[in-house]
Write a structure and sequence with these properties.
The protein contains 3 helices and no strands. The chain is mainly α and about 70 residues long.
Amino acid sequence: MFPEYRDLITELKSSNAHFVSLFQQHNALDQQVKRMVSRTDPATPEEIEKLKKEKLRLKDEIYALLKKSDQG
């Protein structure tokens, strides 16, 4: 996710608790969606779609933090 911000992500992961929380939530949802899609975890298409939307919301928030931190 966001390879162009690799160094900034590393920096924020060590200095910004909110960023770490968002990043961990996104990764957890990503793993959960993958398990649901592969049918390891049972889920309806609606449940999968809901989690994908939440994952996208988190990704947007992460990107906004990256852009803000990159400007400063």
